[in-house]
Amino acid sequence: GPTEVSNMDSFGDGGHRSPPIDNVQWAQGMAGEDRFQVAVSEERGWVFVGIYDGFFGPDATDYLFANLHVVVHHALKGVLSDNIQCNEPTTNSGNLFSLNGGNHSPEFERKPAKRGRTEHPEKNNSAMSGGSPTMHQRVLGALAWALRETEEAFFKAAEEGAADNPEIGLMGSCVLVMLMKGENVYVMNVGNSRAVLARRPEPNLDNILGKATEKDLQQLKAEIMDGLQSVQLNAEHSTSVEEEVKRIKAEHIDRNAIIHGRVKGKLNITRAFGAGYLKEEKCTYSEQHAISLAFKD
User: Fold this and answer.
1) Residues 68-100: tens digit of each pLDDT
2) SS3 readout for the chain
3) Tens digits of per-residue pLDDT, 246-273?
4) Which of 95, 197, 213, 234 could disulfide-pair with 90, CB 3.0 to 4.6 Å?
5) Which has the minimum average pLDDT: 77-81, 111-115, 171-175, 209-213?
6) pTM as predicted
7) Quick count: other Cβ atoms within 10 Å of Cβ 75?
8) Rounded Cα gap, residues 82 and 181, in angstroms
């Protein structure tokens, strides 16, 4: 059945404790309204990184910090087991997968979350490809489901506490999540936070093996560092992206959907976790763009 989220931690957890998951190593931090967390599971062989860039207050980022990884952990049970290495072939277009099963493209599945329960990803993920989902699609679907489920629980908690904390409806956060399993990296985001991969070519060691001097090694190191190339792994969701502006205007007949480069004159990001006051009536909820990258030439 659906994940039980009624026992999720409420927002405002000043202790910023790690979620209660066994055999996981944690690193975490905060700065103002922003939070980050890194979780390493040697037992399951994966690394989770969450970066939450908050606005209008810390409650949304506190809630993400306390709950998102727990829901992701649940969603991935049976998808990323100890014996699954995700070694399926990748596409030829930069070795990138999008959530809708295509290769690297700004187009991705747009399914606004609805208030109430969402189905578990394993029950609904075959629709992404029109047939049996691949391992990568199952992982990406689980990540997207986890974020939607966490946001629904956040909205519910915000509504229940609105009398004491009415400004909670203003608060929200950009979300950037990275999951690494074996040689695969999966990225999910809403907002304008960027995931950037630094790549470098394999050095040519044919002429220096067995006879390299200290000077040769220093020169090789310099050449390797100079050859680093950055690759942005995710799409940004902001009013500086023409496709996002067109989407907002098409989905919202209101002429004032974009004012002075900001959604409703408030935010320059076009997708976010929380910010419930901008998601009432016909407004869409959080959407995700997720990709996986296999470290294969």
Assistant:
1) 998 998 888 877 654 444 444 444 333 444 443
2) CCCCCCCCCCCCCCCCCCCCCCCCEEEEEEECCEEEEEEEECCCCEEEEEEEEEECCCHHHHHHHHHHHHHHHHHCCCCCCCCCCCCCCCCCCCCEECCCCCCCCCCCCCCCCCCCCCCCHHHHHHHHCCCCCCHHHHHHHHHHHHHHHHHHHHHHHHHHCCCCCHHHHCCEEEEEEEEEECCEEEEEEECCCCCEEEECCCCCCCCCCCCCCHHHHHHHHHHHHHCCEEEECCCCCECCCHHHHHHHHHHCCCCCCEECCEECCCECECCCEECHHHCCCCCCCCCCEEEEEECCC
3) 888 888 776 778 888 888 878 888 899 9
4) 95
5) 111-115
6) 0.69
7) 24
8) 10
CA distances from 209 to 204, 216, 221 (A): 10, 10, 14
Q: How far apart are CA 73 and CA 125, in angstroms?
A: 17
**Domains of the chain in sequence order:** 25-195+233-237+272-294 (3.60.40.10), 198-231 (no CATH)
Q: Which of 247, 292, 271 is nearest to 113 (CA)?
A: 271
Confidence of residue 223 (pLDDT cuts 50, 70, 90): low
